[in-house]
Amino acid sequence: MSEEINSFFKENKFLYYLLNFILVITFLKSFQVLAYPEADFQAVLTQGNMNFILFGMDGELGGLVLTFILAFIAIILSFIFGSLLGIARWSDIKIIKLPATAFIELFRSIPHIMVIFWVFFAMPVILTMIFGVKMSVSPLVSAIIAFTLFESAHIAEIVRAGLNSMPKGQFEAAKTLGMNSWQTFILIILPQAYRRMIPSLVSQFVSLFKDTSLVYVIGVVEFFRAATILNNRIYMSFEILSIVGIIYFICAFTMSQIAGYLEKKVENQINS
Amino acid sequence: MSENMIEMKNIQKHYGDFHALKNINFSVKKGEIVVVCGPSGSGKSTMIRCINKLEDITSGTLIVDGFDLGDKKTNINKVRQKAGMVFQHFNLFPHKTILENITIGPIKVKKISKEEADKKAMELLEKVKIPHQASKYPGELSGGQQQRVAIARTLAMEPDIILFDEPTSALDPEMIGEVLDVMKSLAKENYTVVCVTHEMGFAKEVAHRIVFMADGEILEENSPEEFFTNPKTQRASLFLKEILNH
Fold it and tell me: pTM for this structure?
C-alpha cells in the first residue's frame, strides 16, 4: 500500500508539492488559531507597511532590498577573500599559512554579533588613529566589513576542505606535463575543486543571508529591523513576525533549490 | 656518460624511518626500453617517480637528460616536459574533453597555437585508435580508452623519455591488450622507456633489459631471455614462478 502511494507521488511531482504545501499551511494556520486566535493579518498587510519592510523608507534604501544588497556584496567580498585565505592555509608556505590560520581561527571562534558590534565601535577609532582626522563609519559599511571578516573565515575552511578532497593524481598529472604551480591551480585544480564545493558554499551563503538580521543591533534598517520598527508602531508582533518568517523562508528555500539545480548540472559534467 | 638519458648513482630514499630505496645504481641509454619488475613494495614505483621528481631522494646523484635534479637551479618543469609519465590510474582531467586533455599541455606549457595543437592531438588520437572520442569527457570512456588517451596526452608534449607506472594494473583483462599494443608500437619509435609492469609477455617482446627489484634494492639486471630462463637470484626465481603460473 505504501509502495503504491510512493510511486504515485514520484510520478506526480506537482501533486506531491501541492499536498505538502497544503499540509504546511494547514499546520501553521491551526497553530495560529490555537495560539493567537485574534490574529489580524489584514491590518498588517497594507500597502504602506509592506512597502516599508520590503523597500525601506521613501528616499532611502532599506527593508528586504537592503538585506539582499548587503548579502550580495558580503558574498562577493567574502568569496574572494575567503578563497585566498583558504588557499593560503592549505598551502605549505609558512609565511602565508600561519597568518591565514590565525585569522580563520579567530573569526570562527567569535560570535558574529560580537564582530558586528566590534567593527562598528572600533572602526572609527582605528581610522581616526590612522588618518588623524575624526572619521566615522556608517552602519551599513561597518556591517559589510564585519560580514566580510567572519564569512571569509567560513569560506576559507570550505575552500581548504575542497582542496584537500582533490585526488593527488590530478596534481601529479599536471606537474608531469610541465605545468608550474600557478597553471596547475588555475587550469586543473580550482575548476574541479570549486565544483565540489558548491553545496557547502551555497549553504554558507544561505546562512549569511539569514545572519543579515543581526545588523539590527547597529541600526541598519534592513528587513528584520524594519519589521521591528513597524512593530513598535502598531504593536502586532505575532502577525508581523509570522510574515517575516514566511518571507525569510521563501527566500532561503528558493536559494537552496537553485543550489540543488546547480549541483545537478555540475554532476553531469564531472562523472568520473 | 653523456649518452645516458637517465643516470641514478647511489640513490637513497627514506620515508621517515623507512628505507624505501637502498643504494640504487641504475642508468638508461637513449632509445633503450627497460622494464622494472618485482614484488609489491619493492620500491619500483618510488624509483620511477624519483626520475621526474614526483618523489625526492634523500641522497645520491640523479641526472635526467643532462639535468642534475639535485641542483636547485634546475628548472624541474623543463625536465618534466622531457620525461612524460603514464599513471596506473590514468589521471585524466575530468572537467576537460579528450581533445582538451591532450592539447592543454602543448598550448599552455609549450605555447603552441591552438590550431596546431588540435591538429597534432587528432593525429595522436588516430595513432591510439580512438579519434571519434575527441569531444567526449573522460568519464564517458572505458578504462582502456582512458589509458590510451593518457598515453596520447604524454606523447603530445614530445618527450624524449616515457615513464610508465604500472599502466595496465588498473584495467580489466580485456582492455590490457589494447593498451599494450599502443605501448608496443611506441617501442619501435626512438623513445627512451622505463616501464614498471607485471606484464611479462610485454617485457619479453619489447624490452631491451629487465631490472628486478625487491625490498628497495635492484637485485638483478639482465636481458629478457636471460632473466626469464636463467634468473640469477633465488628471489627472482621465486617471483617468476609466482607470476608465470597465473
Answer: 0.84
